[in-house]
């Protein structure tokens, strides 16, 4: 039985993103927040996670260290509870299966913390940083709002239909630890971005090659979002796996195939 309607699947295929209300209930949301807050507060950080400091906030001496964090990566590789209760829960995988098929590999996650005053993200395509190839629709991210995500807080903005092209990205991470130099030849002013505001507990599912960006957080509240990334089991690498990802991918449902993501010889 499908988790999404035919109309929702069609909208995702057409636009490259889909808003899903109440993706988690209040109890699930509270539990995910508790887990993430524990990982953020852990000092030193858990050995399986990576922390990125927001360059806009890095030199501030009037705020605690955790309020300078821009992102925390690989949370489900550090928390078995998060992996089992959210990342691999049937509801999550049912929605993913409706969009990329029955063979699902969990890649990793990124939690964007975006505290008050936090910076935005330049226009980019996610897959430019992951080197994963699939000729169909087999790559997506589930962006779960842990807080309300509004324009004022810097919600994500998408260019509908832009997932059908691949852009050349500048991957010089000395310019920005997360985004490098983004897309030098892209003029964002020539694109029609559609902001997607979410209430806490909602999700936005987007194709990994859709052009998207976010604004700075000019509010007095955080805008936390947990982004979990899934690939079709038939995806392959176009290059060596990204150096920033030190973990094994996790087969989530269906099959993995020799030479494809999620397949390991030992």
Commentary on this structure:
The chain has 266 residues and is α+β, with helices and mostly antiparallel strands. The chain has one domain: Sandwich (Jelly Rolls), CATH 2.60.120. The chain is 17% helix and 23% strand. The strands form three sheets. Strands 1, 2, 3, 4, 7, 10, 12 and 14 form an eight-stranded antiparallel β-sheet that branches. Strands 5-11-8-9 form a four-stranded antiparallel β-sheet, with no helix packed on it. Strands 6-13 form a two-stranded antiparallel sheet.
Provide a compact summary of the structure.
17% of the residues lie in helices and 23% in strands. The protein is an alpha+beta fold and 266 residues long.
* Tally of domains: 1
CATH class wording: Mainly Beta
- Measure the end-to-end span: 35 Å
Return the CATH topology. Jelly Rolls
Succession of helices and strands: HEHEEHHEEEEEEEEEEE
Q: What is the helix tally?
A: 4
| Estimated structural class | alpha+beta
Chain-averaged pLDDT: 89
Any idea what the CATH superfamily is called? Answer: q2cbj1_9rhob like domain
Taking all Cα atoms into account, the compactness measure Rg is 17 Å
The tally of strands reads 14
Q: What is the share of helical residues? A: 10-25%
Please summarize the sheet with the most strands. Answer: 8 strands, antiparallel
Instruction: Extract low-pLDDT stretches.
Output: none
């Amino acid at each position: 039985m499908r988790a999404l309607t035919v109309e929702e699947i069609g909208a995702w295929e057409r636009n490259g993103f889909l808003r899903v209300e109440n993706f988690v209930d209040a109890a699930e949301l509270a539990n995910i927040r508790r887990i993430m807050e524990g990982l953020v507060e852990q000092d030193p950080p858990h050995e399986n996670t990576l922390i990125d400091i927001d360059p806009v906030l890095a030199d501030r001496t009037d705020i605690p260290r955790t309020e300078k964090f821009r992102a925390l990566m690989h949370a489900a590789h550090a928390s078995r509870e998060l992996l089992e209760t959210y990342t691999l829960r049937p509801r999550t995988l049912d929605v993913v299966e409706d969009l990329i098929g029955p063979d699902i590999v969990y890649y990793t996650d990124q939690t964007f913390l975006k505290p008050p005053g936090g910076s935005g993200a330049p226009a980019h395509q996610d897959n430019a940083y992951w080197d994963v190839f699939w000729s169909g629709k087999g790559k997506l991210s589930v962006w779960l709002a842990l807080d309300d995500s509004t324009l004022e807080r810097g919600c994500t903005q998408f260019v509908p239909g832009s997932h059908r092209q691949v852009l050349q990205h500048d991957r010089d991470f000395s310019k920005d630890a997360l985004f490098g130099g983004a897309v030098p030849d892209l003029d964002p002013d020539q694109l029609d971005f559609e902001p997607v505001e979410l209430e806490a507990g909602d999700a936005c599912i987007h194709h990994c090659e859709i052009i998207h960006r976010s604004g700075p957080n000019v509010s007095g509240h955080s805008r936390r979002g947990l982004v979990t990334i899934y690939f079709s089991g038939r995806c392959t690498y176009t290059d060596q796996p990204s150096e920033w990802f030190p973990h094994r991918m996790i087969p989530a449902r269906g099959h993995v195939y020799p030479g494809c993501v999620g397949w390991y010889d030992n």
